[in-house]
Write a structure and sequence with these properties.
By secondary structure, the protein is an alpha+beta fold. It has 2 helices and 10 strands; from the N terminus they run ααββββββββββ.
């Protein structure tokens, strides 16, 4: 009997230590659970955004405001007018409403954008060309949590709404070109994001020239813009 007493005491000691360790482990779990509950709202919001992005049909509206930097390439057919070929970069305003449609993973972008392009030379000749551009673009996007990266590429159609009266640089009423853009949007809530982007247009594929002294007019335009993105 005396030989069993030390063995029983040893069992009681080991059992108490195990119980104490279990209590500490349980306390740690409770603390971890509290830390998890504190970030649950964030994960719920991310899950909502993921469900929206993974939907069969998504619709986004971008309101863009910025500046464009346009430069004309002019080819004259009279050597005496060679000075008219030397053009400078012209700065103008731009504003637009761009609609992006995503259906089953395929993206398409269109909308309307006002753009003031033009022609400016070293001879103080200046021609303002005001367009409404309608893009027909295929787009792609990358998702980095609250940051979305969008890009698109395709043709655009420009409708000339007004131009300065200028005999040398009179252009056609219609512009056909190619355009591509890259922009980022930071989501400040589920249905709203802040935009920052750049875009390039190569215009005049249909030859804008409408003058017997000019063979060809084409334009290169670079855009910088900001704005807001609405998730509809």
């Amino acid at each position: 009997m005396r030989k069993l007493i030390p063995f029983v005491l040893l069992l009681l000691f080991v059992g108490s230590e195990y119980s104490f360790a279990g209590d500490k482990f349980g306390e740690r779990l409770r603390l971890n659970d509290k830390s998890k509950t504190s970030i649950k709202p964030y994960f719920k919001e991310v899950e909502k955004m993921q469900r929206r992005k993974n939907a069969i049909f998504n619709l986004n509206l971008d309101i863009q405001v910025g500046a464009d930097f346009s430069k004309a390439d002019i080819d004259v057919n009279n050597d005496s007018l060679n000075s008219l070929e030397t053009t400078q970069t012209k700065v103008g305003p731009t504003v637009g409403a761009i609609l992006s449609i995503d259906f089953l993973g395929f993206g398409f972008t269109t909308g309307a954008q006002y753009s003031q392009k033009g022609i400016e030379t070293n001879l103080t000749e200046k021609q303002n060309l005001n367009y409404i551009n309608i893009p027909l673009l295929f787009d792609f996007n990358f998702d980095f949590g609250k940051v979305l990266i969008d890009g698109n590429l395709g043709p655009y159609f420009g409708l000339l709404i007004s131009q300065d009266e200028n005999t040398f640089y009179k252009v056609k009423n219609f512009d056909l070109g190619l355009t591509g853009s890259l922009q980022g949007a930071y989501l400040i809530q589920k249905y709203l994001g802040i935009l920052l982007g750049v875009k390039y247009e190569y215009g005049g594929l249909n030859n804008l020239a409408q003058n017997i002294n000019i063979n060809k007019i084409r334009t290169n335009t670079f855009y910088v813009y900001s704005g807001v993105k609405f998730f509809i």
